[in-house]
Amino acid sequence: MKPIPAEAHNLLLELLRDIEQTSLLWQLGVIAASLGLAWWAVRLAGQRLEPGAVAGGVARLVFPLTALGGVLLGKALLQHSLHTSLLNLAVPLLVSLALIRISFYVLRHIFAPGGWLHASERFIAWLVWGALALHITGFLPELLHLLDDLGFNFGRQRVSVLLLIQGLLSI
């Protein structure tokens, strides 16, 4: 197994380096305020929208998107004077949650409920959370590079495993 290169961007190690800094308290405050704002936005959306499947789906999208907006705003304000390692970790978590919920919302409104829909939702969730884990630990660029290196020539065209996976996911 190849050691992790020094330039690998590992969000967990970055957070551990800043664990004793007071900037962590400011970041926790930003996250708490963002989550509180998102909770309030969901409650407000629930009151404003008519009850039903569409309202429930929209309310489920409001939380991660509002929390993400709050965290990004807090990060923009704090990054010029403090380290933002915790916010750097919170952003991909909220983006992943938003991607999963948006995917589920779209799938549920396009296709009729069935066993394959539930299985595809689980596959999407595992795929997104797995990619997030690889990103946070800094292994995602290495894995993408490895998948791009594994390939074969098909005539004059080079076909890599990464290209095949991207093609399958785009269908």
Account of the protein in words:
This protein is mainly alpha-helical. The chain is built from seven helices and two strands; from the N terminus they run ααααααββα. Strands 1-2 form a two-stranded antiparallel sheet. Strand 1 and strand 2 form a beta hairpin. Helix 2 runs antiparallel to helix 3 and helix 3 runs antiparallel to helix 4. The model has no long low-confidence stretch (mean pLDDT 84).
Mean model confidence by pLDDT? 84
Outline the low-pLDDT stretches: none
Helix proportion of residues, in percent?
over 70%
Gross geometry: flat
As a whole number of angstroms, the C-alpha radius of gyration is: 20 Å
Terminal residue distance: 33 Å
Largest sheet: 2 strands, antiparallel
Give the strand order of the largest sheet, numbering strands 1, 2, ... along the chain.
1-2
Order of helices and strands: HHHHHHEEH
Structural class assignment: mainly alpha
The helix count comes to 7
The tally of strands reads 2
Beta-strand portion reads under 5%
